[in-house]
């Protein structure tokens, strides 16, 4: 590990460090190589008197080809390697534990699958992949954990995500890496990575000490089910696959949806959120544009709950 990097504490950290290390070493090597030749030829061909004539050099095809081909190959290798790691970082495992993250000036709120909430303290299990589903209530923030080598902007009006697998128990700093106002420098949190046993004990307690935002009442899934039952969703969307006025919620999340425009989209968090707030923007093929907008009628937490409920309808 490079001593000038923060400690490595996730599955992604080593991969990011390896890419950075190789690119740094190769860059330093060519910098020194070019500098040596630059100094050598500057001294060798310098004018020693006013009568000296600058030599006429026509070039060397072999050297020019090597100097073009070798850097090009290296750049393609770096691109392919970086792209592979980028795809890996953007595609969380299907069995990842999900945590809903809400950023606001100037604090972080974390909501777990059982409805428990914590403020400025994130609790995760060692060696278990975790997916952060994030949104902002005000301005742009950025979720940054240096020890995990992960950073992702958190935006108002849409969901963003990142994932990691913590590989070392302990406490790690979480920062906001996007200037978000006068309290930006104080917008810090701690990631507590617990052993499986300690994490299970913490979850069973239903609280995380003084930093718990509120006791667990309804989990996000239960909150979404309540919205489904009380806000009229059940009149148009079934949960057992049977056809009604609108598409069924069963098996919807993560699957491809064909629209009237001919476009095919994936039913992820942002698609569902957009369909709730702007239902006429993306009409599913075979259905009429009869759904009203729920903009201003459902809170962000209720929409998140609906999404979690739909996810549970495998």
Topology:
Layout: H1 11-44, H2 61-90, E1 97-104, E2 107-111, E3 117-119, E4 121-125, E5 130-136, E6 141-145, E7 150-154, E8 160-164, E9 170-176, E10 188-194, H3 196-205, E11 212-214, H4 220-230, E12 256-258, E13 264-266, H5 269-277, H6 300-312
Parallel strand pairs: 1-5, 4-10
Antiparallel strand pairs: 1-2, 2-3, 3-11, 5-8, 6-7, 6-9, 9-10, 12-13
Helix pairs in contact: 1-2, 4-6
Written overview of the protein:
It is a single chain. The protein is α+β, with helices and mostly antiparallel strands. It folds into three domains: 11-90, Helix Hairpins (Orthogonal Bundle), CATH 1.10.287; 97-214, Cupredoxins -  blue copper proteins (Immunoglobulin-like), CATH 2.60.40; 220-312, Cytochrome Bc1 Complex, Chain D, domain 2 (Orthogonal Bundle), CATH 1.10.760.10. It is 34% helix and 21% strand. The strands form three sheets. It has a six-stranded mixed β-sheet with strand order 8-5-1-2-3-11, with no helix packed on it. Strand 1 and strand 2 (107-111) form a beta hairpin. Helix 1 packs antiparallel against helix 2 and helix 4 (220-230) packs across helix 6 (300-312). It is elongated and about 95 Å long. The model is unreliable at 207-216 (pLDDT under 50).
């Amino acid at each position: 590990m490079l001593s000038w990097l923060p400690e490595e504490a996730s599955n992604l950290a080593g991969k990011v460090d390896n890419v950075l290390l190789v690119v740094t070493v190769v860059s330093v090597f060519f910098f020194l190589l070019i500098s040596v030749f630059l100094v050598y030829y500057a001294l060798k061909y310098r004018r020693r008197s006013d009568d000296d004539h600058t030599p006429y050099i026509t070039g060397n095809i072999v050297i020019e080809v090597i100097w073009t081909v070798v850097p090009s190959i290296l750049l393609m290798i770096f691109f392919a390697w970086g792209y592979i790691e980028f795809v890996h970082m953007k595609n969380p495992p299907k069995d990842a534990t999900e945590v809903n993250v809400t950023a606001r000036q100037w604090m972080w709120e974390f909501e777990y699958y059982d409805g428990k909430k914590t403020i400025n303290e994130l609790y995760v299990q060692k060696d278990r992949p975790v997916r952060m589903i994030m949104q902002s209530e005000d301005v742009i923030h950025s979720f940054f954990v240096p020890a995990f080598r992960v950073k992702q902007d958190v935006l108002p009006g849409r969901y963003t995500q990142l994932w990691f697998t913590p590989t070392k128990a302990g406490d790690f700093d979480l920062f906001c890496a996007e200037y978000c106002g006068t309290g930006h420098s104080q917008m810090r949190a701690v990631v507590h990575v617990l052993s499986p046993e300690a994490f299970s004990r913490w979850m069973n307690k239903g609280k995380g000490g003084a930093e718990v935002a509120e006791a667990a009442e309804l989990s996000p899934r239960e909150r979404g089910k309540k919205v489904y039952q009380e806000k009229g969703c059940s009149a148009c969307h079934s949960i057992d696959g049977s056809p009604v006025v609108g598409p069924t919620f069963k098996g919807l999340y993560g699957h491809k949806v064909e629209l009237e425009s001919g476009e095919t989209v994936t039913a992820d968090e942002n698609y569902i959120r957009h369909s709730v707030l702007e239902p006429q923007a993306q009409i599913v093929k075979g259905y009429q544009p009869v759904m009203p907008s729920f903009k201003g009628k459902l809170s962000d937490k209720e929409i998140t709950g609906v999404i979690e409920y739909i996810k549970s309808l495998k």
